[in-house]
Amino acid sequence: MFNAPFVLLFALLLTLPLLFIFAPRILPPRRVTISLPDELDDLALFRRAVLSTVRPPGSVSRLGSTNAKPKIAFLFLTNTDLHFAPLWEKFFNSPKSNQRKLYNIYIHADPDSDVKSPGGVFENRFIPAKKTQRSSPTLISAARRLLATAILDDSLNAYFALVSQHCIPLHSFRYVYKTLFRPPTESTRFMNRLSFIEVLSEEPQLWDRYIARGKNAMLPEVPFDKFRIGSQFYILTRAHSLMVIKDRKLWRKFRLPCLNVDSCYPEEHYFPTLLSMKDPNGLSEYTLTRVNWTGSVDGHPHTYNPADVSPELIRTLRVSNSTFSYLFARKFSPDCLQPLMGIADKV
To answer: Domain boundaries in the chain?
Structure first.
């Protein structure tokens, strides 16, 4: 018979490998925090970007060329390879789109994700990045970093479109450009251009999201009646992008750690709350990125698969309840690339 200490030691040795296998699946993930050096580094970037706005319009970009026309800055926020890079390449190089280089590209890739450059128009477009994590303020920091870099890089960047690696374009670049920079009508010519960001104030989960950091954690800066939620992806004007990177007051609240992670999506709260408090009349209050929340799982929207891809799907995804067509859509699985490329020229 084996003695008790030997049996206990043997059982422990057998258990250790199992702990390494199953512990990551059982224990909650370690929360990523924003360190003081990272915060100071971001503040220095934001200051440089704000100071750069005194630069005369039309000055030469550090990464792009001089052009008299306003540009769209496409901000890719990702933690995986850009699977749809060939489709975006076709989008940017569609007829009459890149003859005058009316766009810039900036990519924030989680440094732990080993994202590979897809080359082409994406080559050398990666910005200095820091670690990100879902349900944490790190995604706010990453988006602000993208905005600041784009502001600093080119004074002609006039619209800033935040997209993910799962987003696809629904129209040609020419259509997108003409939509955003359409000539003003008689009734709108004295108005500033709008930012296209979803702003929701009557959702049933609003209170749970508001108290995710604690019942009174957001006070006094953000009372409940001023708290808003919306889509993570948006298109902001330059003026609103500057408001975002200048903000310190609300950021101090939204960077607080979440106590209830299941109701905490800071990147969906911070931007609509901040901008609706500062300039409610300058927002469309709807997004131009189509997302299908039917059958969502664990906070993730419906994912389209290759069997779903068709010209009819693209046309359906374009339809919106606003005066604008949807310009982008998510979420598509990586293996949708080939069927999407197959219909790109037709649709």
So the answer is: 36-52+68-287
Helices 85-92 and 337-344, packing angle to 10 deg = 20
- Tell me the per-residue pLDDT of 6-39, one tens digit each, with 9 for 90 and over: 555 555 555 545 444 444 344 444 667 899 999 9
Domain 36-52+68-287 has CATH 3.40.50: no
Write the pLDDT tens digit of every residue in 56-90. 655 554 544 454 799 999 999 999 999 999 999 99
